[in-house]
Amino acid sequence: MLEDRRLAVLRAIVEDYVSTGEPVGSKALVDRHSLGVSSATIRNDMAALEDEGYIAQPHTSAGRVPTDMGYRAFVDRLSGVKPLSSAERRAISDFLAGAVDLDDVMSRSVRLLAQLTRQVALVQYPSLVQASVRHIEIVALSETRLLLVLIADTGRVEQRVIELPAPIPDEALGQVRTRLLSAVTGERCSDLAPVLDGVAEEFSTEVQPQLVVIIATMLEIAVAREEQRIVLGGTANLARYRDSFAANLEPVLEALEEQVVLLRLLGEVSGGDEVTVRIGHENPVEGLYGTSLVGSGYGRDETIVAGLGVVGPTHMDYPVSMTAVRSVAQYLSRILSET
Amino acid sequence: MLEDRRLAVLRAIVEDYVSTGEPVGSKALVDRHSLGVSSATIRNDMAALEDEGYIAQPHTSAGRVPTDMGYRAFVDRLSGVKPLSSAERRAISDFLAGAVDLDDVMSRSVRLLAQLTRQVALVQYPSLVQASVRHIEIVALSETRLLLVLIADTGRVEQRVIELPAPIPDEALGQVRTRLLSAVTGERCSDLAPVLDGVAEEFSTEVQPQLVVIIATMLEIAVAREEQRIVLGGTANLARYRDSFAANLEPVLEALEEQVVLLRLLGEVSGGDEVTVRIGHENPVEGLYGTSLVGSGYGRDETIVAGLGVVGPTHMDYPVSMTAVRSVAQYLSRILSET
DNA sequence: ACTGGCACTCTATGGCCGTGAGTGCCAATA
DNA sequence: TATTGGCACTCACGGCCATAGAGTGCCAGT
Hints:
Two copies of one chain form a homodimer.
Chain A: H1 2-20, H2 26-32, H3 39-52, E1 55-56, E2 65-66, H4 68-78, H5 86-97, H6 102-117, E3 120-124, E4 133-142, E5 145-152, E6 157-163, H7 170-184, H8 192-196, H9 208-223, E7 230-233, H10 244-247, H11 250-257, H12 259-269, E8 276-279, E9 291-300, E10 303-313, H13 318-338
Antiparallel strand pairs in A: 1-2, 3-7, 3-10, 4-5, 5-6, 8-9, 9-10
Helix pairs in contact in A: 1-3, 1-4, 2-3, 5-6, 6-13
Chain B binds a DNA duplex through residues 2, 23, 25-28, 37-41, 43-44, 46-47, 57-63.
């Protein structure tokens, strides 16, 4: 009973602070929410909440502001599911309509997510690690240059130009192509190493050095996860904030430029298909202590292949962000599985 | 003589304002530069410069600030060539070292440019319009799905998945592939339409509908596809400014997210291999009235294929930006031509 | 357990004023 | 004629003070 109201107060504080951006006092609280008690009672509750670490005051005689711990409690126990509005449904179906290309899907997704949440959106390209090889293609560009193309069943296409140590005759290249194609088609990208082991030895010693380079490059493309690309959108939304958050955007923008950092962040919140939230100091990156990350994994046929999410100030609208992230992740999974 | 000193004063004002960020007064000017005259003389010159529209004062009894017209004069007639420092040379050669892939070259270039100028850098992918076809590849993904890959001699690789109206037999596909390959290899991308005209009619009526789709897609990739990509880097540099420029980043960030806008801007400054500058209101985009764009085209074998540049506040360091842009454009052209 | 009331604390706001940088003008000068 | 020193004037900025108001904590009463 008492606990219940305290949590209701916390929820009200979070909601008010998120919408106004200013510390919220006891009087304003009872005015805006029908809590059924007087401001004095609220004050007692607020004092208790402050003792427990859920809220804090910027200075004496100012309203209260949620702490990271407060947001955490809000997210874990208080925020209800916010259904999508019809406009949002329409936006998503519009987005579904024009999907042609994987690149296209990615850039549309990131724009959609940024628009729905009015925050910075991140979408990671499907990883090759969990994917299977649908096809490979080897094209001779010149005597000593090859183009190697690898097509995964997620629709992702990777290509790499290979510089050969020596020319390779056309008929030998044809044999190599056939042999490699039959070896890797349908295999998991992560399992290519054992499959390709020993293949070079099947061929004459004249083409072995070239073949070694080709196989090495193929493994590099398939396994090296550092190649992961992330698309970013809605950066301008950061500048919309007029509070202290906008005052030091620098570390945030810096973090957003570091692919490595982003991959690490997304990796941490995209373990499953549930929406995960990192709030303020829960972030492993110093520059992001004032921001929160809402993310989720998405996948193909029940397997998580990549992550997506949004980044914004800790005082973001979590319910909106969480439902948007969840929905887009689901739609994206559906599209991938249909392909 | 008189004209000479007035211009020297203008140059000094621009330089001081760029480095300090604050309106510059007559006294500060004579202190920091050895102009050989007293502050009263400078005041007369400044009044004249103001009459002519080169400088302005934010309010009475404040120092002067260059106008867009002042920057324009500075850029056109006053800024000397600033040679690259050894550290900068080293940065560029380091950048040259690890170039493997076209994607890699692009992302390295943009980072390099952002680092050299400490501003937002843009690099446009080489256009296909001026390029020739080095190779095409048609891969059957399933009965009714093809992957079409086009490799240009700029190193750019475009791919597109094609949904066929009906299956196409393997042997027919082989013929189509051979025919198309011989038709387009070595041709200019912009000249593909006449080359491919009538090719469909050479084949049996059963595969004609499919072939039409394939050819249409190829043309789309090669010609119509103005879907030019632009890589962007150094956005965090925008937030480094502590003056009024940082106060409204929003329109700038918005403009930077609009590929269309960026393409238009870059297109305007990358006509030739000379560095071009758009200052403040010279920009066609309202949100960029407070920014300047320094850009240049780069190319392959004397032909301009794309543009690159930097975006920053009008009070940027033009000499630094201009030399950086020029150098990177030259190095990029060299790399492309070597390929 | 809740409420009304009250004293207290601070921040934010606005007016006031002195300071100083910067200007324009003018008479004197080389 | 171009330059200079001098001088009065303007105006943003920072410090200071008083006031207003929002918000708190506490306590006694129900």
